[in-house]
Amino acid sequence: MPFSSQLNAVAICRTPYKQKFGIPRQPGLVNAVGYIEFEPAFNHLDAVRGIEQYSHLWLLFCFHENVAQGWKTTVRPPRLGGNEKLGVFATRSTFRPNGIGQSVVKLHGVVQRKGKVCLVISGMDLLDGTPIVDIKPYIPFSDAILDAKGGIAQDAPELMPLIYTPLATEQINHYCQQEQYQDLAELITGVLAQDPRPAYKKAKDDAKLYQVALYDLDIFWHVTAQGIEVLELKATTV
Ligand code: SAH
């Protein structure tokens, strides 16, 4: 049953995550910094008056890179190893009937960038360019339910140990000297410690070379007996 006119993006989320692979599976797991840039029709400082009194915001957004693929009534959550199926509404699957995502993020402040009102945020799990359909203050007395049952997602994912080759260490130190890559070391550590691989890959010896795209850099890594080894960084070639 169609219920309303189409939804319009009120803002676009700008993040270091340039591809879906590697983005943390929920917010708050990696302290990446991002920006919410308001679209022209919503670009009014008045519309965010008083927002700085809140430490966190709810972002409602569209999984825009997935909507074209549609949805199924059951999905295979990564937490269940990709084998078991659950109903789509019993998961946070990114393939949903209306493609709506929901993330709570930390608010750092309101700035003006290139003539646009922007919210400075961190901890988001959103792909760069994600359309934001609504922004709401996080209200602890009603949003934080400390004794809630989290089902298959009761706890944050376990973290993998990380090791770095001398080349990767030298490259990260070099990039971190530059303003735009200040949080690169923390970002690489946070993203890779989550072990972004698909669930079925974690079950066996995995000699594959992986790459995640952060900012305009490709980070190459693989899995060893000691953990995830960061091999080297290269400027993204797209
Ligand atoms: N916290 C949200 C999202 C959880 S799933 C919710 O519960 O609804 C998080 C995953 O969404 C990320 O790992 C990334 O792979 C995917 N994702 C993020 N932004 C996306 C986008 N714009 N389109 C498609 N998938 C996206």
Automatic annotation (TrEMBL):
<dbReference type="InterPro" id="IPR023370">
    <property type="entry name" value="TrmO-like_N"/>
</dbReference>
<feature type="domain" description="TsaA-like">
    <location>
        <begin position="7"/>
        <end position="147"/>
    </location>
</feature>
<dbReference type="GO" id="GO:0032259">
    <property type="term" value="P:methylation"/>
</dbReference>
<keyword id="KW-0949">S-adenosyl-L-methionine</keyword>
<dbReference type="InterPro" id="IPR036413">
    <property type="entry name" value="YaeB-like_sf"/>
</dbReference>
<comment type="similarity">
    <text>Belongs to the tRNA methyltransferase O family.</text>
</comment>
<dbReference type="InterPro" id="IPR036414">
    <property type="entry name" value="YaeB_N_sf"/>
</dbReference>
<dbReference type="InterPro" id="IPR041369">
    <property type="entry name" value="TrmO_C"/>
</dbReference>
<dbReference type="GO" id="GO:0089715">
    <property type="term" value="F:tRNA (L-threonylcarbamoyladenosine(37)-C2) methyltransferase activity"/>
</dbReference>
<dbReference type="Pfam" id="PF01980">
    <property type="entry name" value="TrmO_N"/>
</dbReference>
<keyword id="KW-0808">Transferase</keyword>
<keyword id="KW-0489">Methyltransferase</keyword>
<dbReference type="InterPro" id="IPR023368">
    <property type="entry name" value="UPF0066_cons_site"/>
</dbReference>
<protein>
    <submittedName>
        <fullName>tRNA (N6-threonylcarbamoyladenosine(37)-N6)-methyltransferase TrmO</fullName>
    </submittedName>
</protein>
<dbReference type="InterPro" id="IPR040372">
    <property type="entry name" value="YaeB-like"/>
</dbReference>
<dbReference type="Pfam" id="PF18389">
    <property type="entry name" value="TrmO_C"/>
</dbReference>
